[in-house]
Inverse folding.
């Protein structure tokens, strides 16, 4: 299934994609919040799958809605660094033996079509296409081999990064460089695991003004989605709606010669096979 959060007349609603539009989950008897829907677990998914096969519910044409991030209010946004070998090499870093983690905050989230705002205090804002895990079932200390059972689905993500803050501040400031407002585009939809069954064979690209800058496949990830979920669950309790950015492939701007950083007027597209295209313009703050 392809789920989304959309806005109609200023009200956000969780929905399911159907016939080129979106059906309000509340009109099918489900919660109006994506996070609350995900908390229903596998039973809720099964019920929605059955309900979606019937011509019922309040439908909204795509042109009449404004998309929001698929999960607009996650409690946690956890990110992996250097999770593609070639990206680690181009960054001059060692191949990690364990996942490297940092965080973003919900104020960084924006939706498909929303602008990425370049902060006045940074002159080196970079791009990173990423597959994002959306947690469904809660879990802590998840056993080996069980991580995928806690995943509801996947979406496209863009880990926008202020390299001068991330790499050049005293001690390195990964969290600061990664979580400026608007630095977490996600969307356009959440594709559930029953439709996207193999997250490790997806083409992933980032295009900047139509030029392909990153072009890889999720099979190149060092730590797979299940392993990543299990690792993080040793540290904290994962909850429905939590987001995990799984790292970016090579081709980022700061590693190029000369470097390429985002500038006002740019247009970014993150495309992941089986999910879709996440588009965001760039403006100066």
């Amino acid at each position: 299934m392809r789920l989304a959060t959309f806005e109609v007349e200023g009200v956000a609603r969780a929905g399911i994609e159907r016939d080129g539009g979106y059906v309000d989950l509340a009109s099918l008897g489900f919660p109006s919040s994506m996070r609350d829907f995900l908390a229903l677990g596998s039973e809720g998914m099964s019920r929605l799958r059955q309900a979606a096969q019937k011509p019922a519910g309040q439908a909204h044409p795509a042109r009449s809605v404004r998309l929001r991030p698929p999960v607009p209010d996650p409690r946690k946004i956890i990110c992996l660094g250097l999770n593609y070998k070639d990206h680690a090499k181009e960054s001059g870093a060692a191949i990690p033996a364990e996942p490297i983690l940092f965080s973003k905050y919900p104020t960084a989230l924006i939706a498909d079509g929303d602008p990425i705002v370049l902060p006045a205090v940074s002159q080196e804002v970079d791009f990173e296409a990423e597959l994002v895990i959306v947690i469904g079932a809660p879990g802590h200390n998840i056993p080996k081999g069980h991580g995928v059972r806690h995943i509801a689905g996947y979406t496209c993500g863009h880990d926008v990064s202020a390299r001068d803050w991330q790499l050049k501040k005293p001690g390195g400031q990964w969290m600061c460089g990664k979580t400026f407002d608007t630095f977490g585009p996600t969307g356009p939809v959440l594709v559930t695991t029953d439709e996207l069954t193999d997250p490790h064979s997806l083409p992933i690209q980032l295009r900047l003004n139509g030029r392909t800058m990153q072009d890889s496949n999720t099979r190149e990830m060092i730590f797979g989605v299940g392993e990543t979920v299990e690792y993080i669950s040793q540290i904290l309790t994962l909850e429905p709606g939590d987001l995990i950015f799984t790292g970016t492939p090579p081709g980022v701007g700061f590693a190029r010669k000369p470097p390429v950083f985002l500038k006002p007027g740019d247009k970014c597209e993150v495309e992941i096979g089986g999910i879709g295209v996440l588009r965001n313009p760039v403006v100066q703050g």
Observations:
- Residues 47 and 68 are 24 Å apart (CA to CA).
- The mean pLDDT is 95.
- Helices lie at 34-38, 41-52, 85-90, 163-168, 174-178, 225-233.
- The radius of gyration is 18 Å.
